[in-house]
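[Discussion] Sanity-checking designs against the backbone

I'm trying to build intuition for which residues belong where. Below is a structure token string of 330 positions. I'd appreciate it if someone posts a full sequence so I can compare it with mine line by line.
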């Protein structure tokens, strides 16, 4: 039997005693406004190809992509992020298709902005979906090195093509040095002052991108991405990248992946005055889907808990393949 003296007089459980009180003292909230839905675009109308390692996700042809975007809009999603699934025969070592102003990717951006101008369209700027080498930068044929500055010229050209197509936010995802500055300069030189840049600021060399590389068949043919993507052991380096992206003119900063890097999201949101995005990547999606399919986890609850964790860590926005599912619950 406890004495009166032993009894706790401070009881945090009082703030958890009812749904009403729990709601009042809740510190963080997930809303539809936080969600950005990544979508995979295929070249041919009518296409809807299931991605095996991402159950519930598809490569949509332009017509069906538009239909999907309209559904997302009706659910209250403000922003989609498009990735091109380029046919193998169109890939080459120079990523030429990335610079095709009349390609299916800029056309689809343009179509969405014409049909549904309120929807914010974010794009991807990197060579890997277009490159026969599967790298984000040009590969030096002799040494196998990933060429930084030679790649920047292509990124700048992609930025102009995408901005001209009507993109609202450009997403350089390649981790070359100086890309944000080069892209900002190119945009401003062409008068695209209002086109935003969300930099993939702290993008780690991660095993969690596997299903995405299945979706785009974009895995590196040789080697890995460790000479440009960050070492998972580092966090100070993320702050350096944030400082550089900010000086170079980024409007928003991103951390990727999300779940294994909540501390990095937290560090960036403490240090930076810019809005922070978390990318809840393909492998994080696949893990929950697989465990739920096996009956090992409540997939819906785990999804909502995971999405909320990004808000708690300090993210303002979340790119997630769960966006549609979560929006239909919220
Ligand atoms: C590459 C890119 C990757 C993703 C987005 N852009 C993966 C990679 O570096 O190979 C991954 C997204 C995901 O896993 O959901 N530019």
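Best answer:
Here's mine. Compare freely.
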């Amino acid at each position: 039997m406890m004495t009166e003296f032993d009894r706790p007089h401070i009881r945090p459980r009082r703030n958890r005693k009812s749904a009403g009180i729990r709601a009042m003292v809740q510190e963080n909230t997930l809303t539809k406004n936080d969600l950005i839905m990544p979508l995979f675009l295929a070249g041919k109308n009518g296409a809807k190809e299931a991605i095996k390692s991402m159950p519930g996700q598809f490569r949509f042809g332009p017509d069906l992509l538009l239909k999907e975007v309209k559904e997302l809009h009706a659910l209250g999603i403000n922003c989609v992020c498009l990735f091109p699934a380029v046919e193998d025969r169109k890939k080459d070592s120079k990523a030429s298709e990335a610079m095709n102003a009349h390609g299916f990717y800029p056309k689809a951006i343009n179509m969405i902005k014409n049909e549904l101008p309120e929807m914010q369209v974010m794009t991807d700027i990197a060579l890997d979906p277009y490159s026969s080498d599967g790298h984000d930068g040009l590969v030096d044929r002799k040494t196998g090195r990933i060429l930084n500055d030679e790649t920047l010229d292509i990124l700048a050209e992609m930025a102009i093509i995408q901005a001209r197509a009507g993109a609202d936010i450009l997403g350089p995802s390649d981790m070359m040095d100086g890309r944000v500055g080069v892209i900002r300069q190119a945009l401003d030189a062409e008068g695209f002052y209002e086109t935003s840049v969300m930099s993939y600021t702290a993008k780690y060399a991660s095993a969690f991108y596997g299903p995405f590389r299945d979706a785009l068949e974009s895995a590196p043919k040789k080697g890995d991405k460790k000479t440009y993507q960050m070492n998972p052991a580092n966090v100070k380096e993320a702050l350096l990248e944030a400082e550089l992206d900010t000086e170079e003119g980024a409007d928003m900063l991103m951390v990727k992946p999300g779940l294994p890097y909540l501390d990095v999201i937290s560090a960036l949101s403490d240090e930076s005055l810019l809005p922070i995005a978390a990318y809840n990547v393909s492998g994080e999606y696949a893990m929950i889907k697989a465990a739920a399919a096996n009956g090992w986890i409540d997939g819906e609850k785990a999804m909502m808990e995971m999405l909320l964790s990004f808000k708690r860590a300090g993210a303002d926005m979340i790119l997630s393949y769960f966006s549609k599912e979560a929006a239909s619950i919220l």
